[in-house]
Design brief:
Helix content: over 70%
Strand content: under 5%
Largest sheet: none
Order of helices and strands: HHHHHH
Number of helices: 6
Length: 166
């Protein structure tokens, strides 16, 4: 493969990955985090306001602000715990979509004959999509699922390499 073909393959891979990412973002929106509204609606209280007061009002002011911030923390934590399962479900689905499309891109790349730049670009783009999927969902996978997924992907890549290079 000459330099032009390598650059074309790289361009195909980059555009393929971008196309898939934008497609997912366009047609499968991430759930909106309602916890962000807690931060947007809270009044802006500053400790410096309390410092301007005389005792005992100063102590009462500090205590009220501390109570307010403690309540905010409790609300934020509760909101986060309620939102987390929806976000995890979305991340899992995106992982599945990216992995399937990545594997299909690699398989399609192996089926393309005599167009080395296209073949390499599709396979590289598929590989990047798979790596991107794993990185996005890695923290949510348990160790057995990580092992199984990586084993399956390794098997697919070895099989494809064997078929392509034979």
């Amino acid at each position: 493969m000459n330099l032009k073909q390598k650059l074309l393959a790289l361009a195909i891979a980059i555009i393929l990955v971008s196309f898939i990412a934008v497609g997912i973002d366009t047609f499968y929106k991430a759930p909106e985090n309602p916890c962000n509204k807690i931060y947007e609606t809270r009044p802006k209280l500053f400790i410096s306001n309390c410092e301007l007061l005389q005792e005992p009002n100063k102590t009462v002011c500090f205590n009220e602000q501390q109570l307010f911030y403690d309540n905010q923390s409790i609300q934020s934590q509760k909101c986060f715990e309620e939102f987390q399962p929806r976000e995890n479900f979305y991340k899992r689905n995106v992982f599945i979509i990216l992995t399937i499309l990545g594997v299909l891109s690699i398989i399609l790349g192996t089926l393309v004959k005599n167009l080395h730049a296209l073949s390499f670009g599709l396979m590289l783009g598929g590989l990047i999509d798979i790596v991107y999927a794993i990185i996005r969902y890695w923290a949510n996978m348990n160790e057995y699922f990580r092992f199984i997924i990586l084993g399956i992907l390794l098997g697919i890549l070895i099989w494809i390499s064997y078929k392509k290079l034979r």
